[in-house]
Design brief:
Pfam families: Ribosomal_L33. The chain is an all-beta fold. It contains no helices and four strands. It has one domain: Rubrerythrin, domain 2.
Amino acid sequence: MRQKVMLACAQCRSRSYTATKPLGCLGERLTANKFCPICRKHTVHRETK
């Protein structure tokens, strides 16, 4: 089973991406370098609660 999580921009806090992760990794938060349409540049996106 996998769990859906939201990714939020680290600078503007907008939530523009979703991702999935395995249920066994509940303690670790995902981070990804993605394009933010609000900031209009590539920024770090982190998993939100």
